[in-house]
């Protein structure tokens, strides 16, 4: 999904540029490509979740993050 970050930024900027320049054709095209990029990301997320076991998420998170049941700190240390 990170692989699509550049495309998301590029096409979002295209939408903003088109809006600033009142260029409806560029706006529509940028929105279409931006939407398609989100569809690619969504499809990858759906595939990832279809291949995973939701009940095992906390075990996986513990493995990746190296933490388990830590108390969240609510104050800043200087």
What are the key terms here?
single chain, mainly alpha
DSSP helix fraction = 55-70%
Radius of gyration: 19 Å
What is the rounded distance between the termini? 35 Å
* Largest sheet descriptor: none
Helix/strand/pairing class, anyone? mainly alpha
Low-pLDDT sequence parts: none
Outline type: elongated
Number of strands: 0
How many H/I helices? 3
Q: In what range is the share of β-strand residues? A: under 5%
What is the averaged pLDDT score?
83
What is the N-to-C succession of helices and strands? HHH
Describe this structure in words.
This protein has a domain at about 1-55. Helix content is about 65%, strand content about 0%. It has helices at about 5-20, 25-50, 55-65. α1 runs antiparallel to α2. The longest helix is centred in the middle third of the chain and has 27 residues, at about 25-50. The two termini are about 35 Å apart. The model has no long low-confidence stretch (mean pLDDT about 85).
């Amino acid at each position: 999904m990170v692989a699509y970050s550049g495309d998301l930024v590029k096409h979002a900027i295209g939408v903003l540029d088109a809006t600033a320049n009142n260029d409806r054709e560029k706006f529509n095209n940028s929105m279409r490509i931006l939407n398609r990029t989100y569809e690619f990301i969504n499809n990858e997320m759906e595939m990832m979740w279809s291949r995973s076991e939701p009940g095992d998420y906390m075990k996986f998170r513990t493995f990746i993050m190296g933490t388990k049941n830590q108390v969240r700190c609510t104050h800043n240390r200087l």
